[in-house]
Amino acid sequence: MRGRSAIAILLAILLSVPVVGGTTTATMEDDEEMDPCMENPEQPCANQTVLYLWSNGQSTFWSHFNANETDNAASNEYSREKDNGAINIDERFSMNPTLNKRLNMTVDGEIRVTLNITVNGDWTNDNDANTACGQNDCDELNVTLWAGATQIFRQHVPQLSQGQNSVIFSYRITEEQSLWDSSTANPSIQIQMKLKGNRQNGGPGGVFLEGEPAEFTMGMSGDGGSNIEMPIDPASWDADFQAGDDGAIEAEEQPGFLFMAALATMTLAAVYLPGREEESENF
């Protein structure tokens, strides 16, 4: 009986000793890690939550979270013009390189869109014979934000005027739209508009120009450029969230968990099971 008590006491002492895992090494590794904003300058991080839009000025469109673009093909603006006829704008600025992180958007947080756009010509459908657009020839500006194949919002912008426009609007994230997983939610913004020009020769002898040409010009990111501010929750940068645990550490991942569980089991066996054997012998 005394031997069993001694074993139980010894095991209890062992249980009270803190279990040392690999925390020192992990801490040293964390200290040596490069700033994620520097390591992946085009990915979102604590100091980079604005998605910037870029183009080569002609047919290539992309976006990322770096305010600078080192690609020599990047242009300060994207522009289309046509004297007589329609310009159909339907461009999608998908994140490139693709998103490699999980993001948690703040519920009810604001996505703020800023676009610098110059338009000329006609883009409103009407029955006015003096304008270029008829009933179904044109479309006003529409802006759509996507997370992968999921539409986050579609914003119709009817209030543009001739010349330069600063288009600014916001949208609040719902709870169902808060989690953006890197494998399925690569962000992109789609810009759509259909304008029409009606400039042509007229007047006596056809020597005078009449009507207005169509123009669509959009400033790219940089000074005076176009971007989308994202309400990314700071908790997104937590290592457990990035690992898919959403902040919860599984029991088997805790340092020394299995060892401590084994000691607890042995202690119970040393105290409880022999007592049960003595009870059995008394019957």
Topology order in helix (H) and strand (E) letters: HHHEEEEEEEEEEEEEEEHH
Q: How much of the residues is beta strand, in percent?
A: 25-35%
What's the rounded overall pLDDT mean? 81
Query: Mind telling me which CATH architecture of the domain at 58-242 this is?
Result: Sandwich
Specify the number of helices.
Answer: 5
Secondary structure category: alpha+beta
First-last Cα distance? 19 Å
- How many β strands by DSSP? 15
Query: Segments where pLDDT lies below 50 for 5+ residues?
Result: 19-29, 247-254
3D architecture notes:
About 7% of the residues have low confidence. The chain is of the alpha+beta class and 283 residues long. The chain has 5 helices and 15 strands. A hairpin with a 2-residue loop joins strand 7 and strand 8. The radius of gyration is 32 Å and the shape is elongated. The protein has a domain of 185 residues: Sandwich (Jelly Rolls), CATH 2.60.120. The chain is 21% helix and 34% strand. The strands form 4 sheets. Strands 1, 2, 3, 6, 9, 14 and 15 form a 7-stranded antiparallel sheet that branches. The protein has a 4-stranded antiparallel sheet with strand order 4-11-7-8, with no helix packed on it.
